[in-house]
Specification:
The chain is α/β, with parallel strands linked by helices. It is built from twelve helices and twelve strands. The chain is globular, with a radius of gyration of 21 Å. About 45% of the residues are buried. The chain binds guanosine-5'-diphosphate-beta-L-fucopyranose. The site of guanosine-5'-diphosphate-beta-L-fucopyranose has 28 residues, from helix 3, helix 6 and strand 7.
């Protein structure tokens, strides 16, 4: 990918990861990027994907398209998470092989490792024990993609690499109260609680219109809600002016990786790393994790909410810990650059600058 005119296809360019890749590649002067949104190309449809690859013939592919979400989304949409992700990966990887793609980076996830694997998680722990149940369908699809890349490399001599990032966050994230990952979900919960405390009901209405979570409102329009209705609505999500209810015990830990750092690592690997140098997959992380309770305290302070944090133990904790061992990547000369405080500020700014949230 040394040539800045190289034809590069980013599958999933509108998502958190794909949009960060596009930003970084464009910033680095790559001028021949290929995109299709899901209305133009449904990656679950084999013949459409094969046709697209035959016509466009990209040289490099970042496979960042996926049906993704936080613990609640993974748990509630299991069939969609396995079907969509297996289909997307299978179609893109097979079509990339048929179209003679020079190199492909397949984006996985740290949830592919066994639930109770030793920490930090080494790449070789893949498939050594049972997966975490809350995201097993997603993990199985991601493991399928890793194995597709590996065996296409072995049989067809392709150069298809799989990378496993830690929990991602950053601008471009989704802020749905139920389907989002933990960091954006908490940011929005604390922000809405602060707006309630300040009595800014109009701002809450604008936020609900912008970011969703409207179905529970039934027939009513968010703009016509009274203060009382808004308070009742947010209480259903555990949000009041004095407290926010979070899920689980708060004792599980997560390693948070800023999405621009992930994009940087993927482009670094696309340029410098070839398959089989260091095995079938490579972790991308910071090497540091925090308990959900600690993450919650940081976000609460950043947002400026002064109320109480409560934990609902009836909700799942998910994997207790999934800290990635990142020495393979470090040995190639790459390290994460963005500290959590800076990354959180950027993410919060992205959220509040969008219409209605501030
Ligand atoms: O990011 P997250 O939703 O998914 O984080 P996973 C879940 C953790 O945050 C659990 C706690 O310990 C939850 O109990 N938590 C507390 C909350 N309050 C909230 C809240 O309001 N919203 C959310 N979302 N969590 C993901 C997988 O698992 O890991 C993905 O779902 C992917 O598929 C990703 O693999 C890397 O970290 O548990």
């Amino acid at each position: 990918m040394k040539n800045k005119n190289a034809k590069i296809y980013i599958a999933g360019h509108k998502g958190l990861v794909g949009s960060a890749l596009a930003r970084k590649l464009e910033g680095d002067g790559y001028s021949n990027l290929v995109f299709r949104d899901s209305n133009q190309l449904d990656l679950r449809r084999q013949t459409d994907v094969e046709k697209f690859f035959e016509e466009e013939k990209p040289e490099y592919v970042f496979l960042a398209a996926a049906k993704a979400g936080g613990i609640f989304a993974n748990y509630n949409y299991k069939a969609e998470f396995i079907y969509d992700n297996v289909m997307i990966a299978t179609n893109v990887i097979h079509s990339a092989y048929k179209a003679g793609v020079k190199k492909l980076i397949n984006l996985g996830s740290s949830c592919i490792y066994p639930r109770l694997a030793p920490q930090p998680l080494k790449e070789e722990y893949l498939l050594t024990a049972k997966l975490e149940s809350t995201n097993e369908p997603y993990a199985v699809a991601k493991i399928t993609a890793i194995k597709l890349c590996r065996y296409y490399c072995e049989q067809y001599k392709t150069n298809f690499i799989s990378v496993m990032p830690a929990n991602l966050y950053g601008p471009g994230d989704k802020f749905d109260l139920e389907k989002a990952h933990v960091l954006p979900a908490l940011m929005r919960k604390f922000h809405l609680a602060k707006l309630l405390f300040e009595g800014k009901y109009d701002k809450v209405c604008e936020d609900l219109k912008e970011y969703g979570n409207m179905p529970m409102l039934g027939e009513e329009q968010a703009s016509n809600l009274t203060g009382r209705q808004i308070i009742d609505h947010l209480a259903k999500f555990g949000i009041t002016k004095d407290s926010v209810i979070l899920w689980g015990t708060g004792d599980s830990s997560r390693e948070l990786l800023y999405v621009d750092d992930l994009a940087d690592a993927c482009i670094f690997l696309m340029k410098q790393y070839d398959v089989n140098e260091l095995g079938e997959l490579i972790n991308i992380g910071t090497g540091v994790d925090l308990k959900i309770k600690e993450i919650a305290d940081l976000i609460k302070d950043l947002v400026g909410f002064n109320g109480e944090i409560c934990y609902d133990n009836s909700k799942p904790d998910g994997t207790p810990r999934k800290l990635l061992e990142v020495s393979k990547l470090n040995s190639l000369g790459w390290r994460a650059k963005t500290n959590l405080e800076k990354g959180m500020i950027e993410t919060y700014n992205y959220y509040v600058r969008r219409k209605g949230a501030s």
